[in-house]
Specification:
Keywords: Membrane, Transmembrane, Transmembrane helix. The chain is mainly alpha-helical and about 70 residues long. It has one domain. It is about 85% helix and about 0% strand. The chain is built from three helices and no strands. The longest helix has 30 residues. The radius of gyration is 15 Å and the shape is elongated.
């Protein structure tokens, strides 16, 4: 179970990078608006951004409430 948190963190950081690029690239925004496949990618990255943040926050709260070691 410990190996899942670095994976979640990397995916969450990748989604942040994607949205920073999306926000600053009119070409990517046009591609997402014009393509169904890119719209699905955008939706998945949105879920990763919010779900990853929620998972990491809950994990941090759990670590604070139940310190190990």
């Amino acid at each position: 179970m410990k190996k899942i948190w670095p994976t979640i963190t990397v995916l969450w950081l990748a989604s942040i990078a994607y949205f920073l690029i999306y926000a600053n690239s009119p070409a990517l925004r046009a591609t997402v608006n014009g393509s169904g496949a890119w719209s699905i990618v955008h939706g998945i990255m949105d879920l990763v951004l919010f779900g990853g943040a929620l998972a990491l926050i809950l994990h941090l709260i759990d670590r604070i409430r139940h310190p190990r070691g």
